[in-house]
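Table S4 entry, Fatty acid desaturase.
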Amino acid sequence: MQGDNSASYAGIGGIGSKIWPLTGPEIISRDKLKTLRTRSNGPGLIRLAVHLTALALGVLAVYFSAGTPWLLIPAMLAYGIVIVLLFAPLHECSHGTAFHSRWINHIVGFAVAAFTFRPFLYFKYRHAAHHTFTQHEDHDPDIVPFPTSLRDYFGQIIGLSFWPKLVGTLWRGTTGRFTEEEREFLPKSVWKQVMLEIRLLALLYVAITAVSIYFASTIALVYWLLPRVMGEPVLRAIRMAEHTGAEESPNLLANTRTTLANPLLRMLYWNMPFHAEHHLASSVPFHALGRLHDEVSPHLQCVSKSYFHVHREIIREVLRNGRAGATPAGQGA
């Protein structure tokens, strides 16, 4: 398949495909949806300012903790969590809903994507496939399989598969050697644009590395790379909670989980814990997801009190499956 997905895709931000007709959005009235879809620059700029302030506080925490390991490590971890949560504005900008102005969505999206080692345009199309084929075993590129063991669970949390995929994306984008899966969600018409963006990112990262080595500077390492890596398990845990353990069906009311996270996390994650709501109406900006939740919450089939509760249930299920699959004593192979 050479990027010609017109027969299968509903388009960026689409709600289904011919082979995976999603259901659930019909519960939202057209009038209500029209009201909620209103976009504005104000909420996005305010939320971005809050996130940038949190990043600045993280930098200060790391700076003043230097030389004191028992303070420095927690400071870098907290700062790293704020960095990885930049995934939220990247995600929102990819939908064009973070801001009313298209150019602000593109600039902010590209900037936060670059800071977290992701190519913005590539992500935009990959994420469109995730929305079109949510929880489809073969066609959802972001499906997270239910862990088969505790080792598998913790491997997913620390990113054993995530980091090779991220590095592989940059390498393949630089060389233009896209996989068959990537050719399914990347139209051939955008290959050159995607490759150009990734090559520019690669040049940027090489330049930063070269300058750091030349000046024997650890600034990029301490204030960017290490915190970015340290914070990733938190984002892996959040992303796992969005769909893992939910139905692998086209029913958006059951295949996506909403998590009633605390206000601070909702703030820094741009209301993405309201994830089922987002999948039901991806054209609704982040700042209106709380109102959408009030509208659809009686219909949602997968809602959790917190991320802690989600992962407690996942671990319990993993252990339960492990016990069920254990070979009885005396019957070993």
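The longest strand covers residues 258-259.
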